[in-house]
Amino acid sequence: MPTIPHLLLATTGLALATLASALPAQGSPPAQQEVARGKAVFARHCAACHGRGPGDDGSAHLPGTAALAARYQGSLPGALEERKDLDAETLLYFVRHGSGPMPMFRKTEVSDADIGSIAAYLAASAASVRK
Question: How many CB atoms are located within 10 Å of the residue 79 CB?
């Protein structure tokens, strides 16, 4: 009988294989349709904490953006839309497991394909940021 860690590894491996099959080939830009879908999914599930702009309370950043900005102290942007290091595999890990105050999201809430679309949107968004 498989143990819990073995089941977790098998499940994560299957999710990554599914996600990889939904992504464009390495080096090819994501289709505009995928980027647009990712932007909509990001707006629905992520932007309230991780979007750009000020918070409703007048703070300079939204809570997730502020937390990441404090954590990275300028070595990486706090806003996910400005990050160039967030591939689908990394997003899948954090979305499925959560981190600190960030909750985990089930596949019924945010599918693997949704995460792939978010990755495509974030890559396109980061590419448009001038620094």
Answer: 22
Tell me the Ramachandran region of residue 72: left when phi exceeds 0, alpha when psi lies from -120 to 50, beta otherwise. Answer: alpha
SS3 118: helix
Alpha-carbon separation of residue 115 from 54, 62, 84, 103 (angstroms)? 25, 21, 16, 15
Per mean pLDDT, which of 35-39, 58-62, 127-131 is the most reliable?
35-39
Distances in Å between the alpha carbon of 55 and those of 14, 15, 27, 62, 76?
Answer: 37, 33, 35, 5, 20
pTM for the full predicted model: 0.75
* Domains defined along the chain, listed by start: 39-128 (1.10.760.10)
